[in-house]
Amino acid sequence: MPTATFDNVTLTTKANVYFDGKAVSHSFTTADGVSKSAGVVLGPNTELTFGTNAAEIMECVAGSCEYKLKDSDAWVKVGEGESFNIDANSSFDVKVADQFHYVCHYA
Questions:
Q1: Nearest in space to 78 (alpha carbons), one of 97, 65, 91, 59
Q2: Does residue 85 contact residue 78 with C-beta atoms inside 8 Å?
Q3: What is the pTM (predicted TM-score) of this model?
Q4: Alpha-carbon gap, residue 79 to 90, rounded angstroms
């Protein structure tokens, strides 16, 4: 089951807007000091490349996407309740047909 809510968080109210508004997220910190972000990538038929500084776990909370990790030729589809890992200092591509709602857990 995907993460639906987080209690007792400190939210950054200014949105992170990427790729001319095709990806929007909000950063927040949990009560125990862990940084995360929650956002959405909007279609139709959007393909984007994201870079990482820290390792990340991308959790799909609604919708779906296909992703391809750096140095891979394989596209993998994930849907609600599924997640994928990305290494630090790397990148990944996403394809979104409609909408991909996510929580990014930074490692």
A1: 65
A2: no
A3: 0.94
A4: 22
